[in-house]
Amino acid sequence: MPDKAWKNRERLVSRFFGGVRNALSGINSKVTHSDVIHDKLFIECKLRAKHSAVKLWDETKVLADKEKKTPVIALCEKNRPGFWIMVHSDDFEKVSEEIDINNNSEEIDINNNKDKKEEED
């Protein structure tokens, strides 16, 4: 009998993040309630026919493709700090690299501003 589709997706997600599928996730698990056993991440997998956020991503991808850019959705809620980032798994590395580049350039700018201020004093 073939494996259930949601189990296959949990395996795919676990491999992506370097974890192992938790066969007894949820309340029955003795290891973690997460769908994936991982040292640092708590990963919940949801397989649905449709997700509203994915529809938004599909629309954004059409626009991003026209500009030869990588689509990223930032989900924000009123009165909640921060935001949630939605990126397709195929683009995850590319987006992570951009975050690293941006964070490194901000550190450089902060350091340059400190150096300039010290020179003025």
Report on the structure:
With 121 residues, the protein is mainly alpha-helical. It contains 3 helices and 4 strands; from the N terminus they run αββαββα. It is globular. The N and C termini lie far apart (75 Å). The model has no long low-confidence stretch (mean pLDDT 86).
User: How helix-rich are the residues, as a percent range?
Assistant: 40-55%
DSSP summary, beta strand count: 4
**Coarse shape:** globular
Low-confidence stretches are none
What's the average pLDDT? 86
Number of helices in the DSSP assignment: 3
**Rg, alpha carbons:** 20 Å
Distance between the termini: 75 Å
- Provide the structure class: mainly alpha
Largest sheet: 2 strands, antiparallel
Keywords:
121 residues, mainly alpha, two-stranded antiparallel ribbon
Question: Would you spell out the secondary-structure blueprint of this structure?
Answer:
Elements: H1 5-17, E1 20-21, E2 36-37, H2 52-66, E3 73-75, E4 84-86, H3 92-120
Antiparallel strand pairs: 1-2, 3-4
Would you summarize the structure shown here?
This protein has 121 residues and is mainly α.
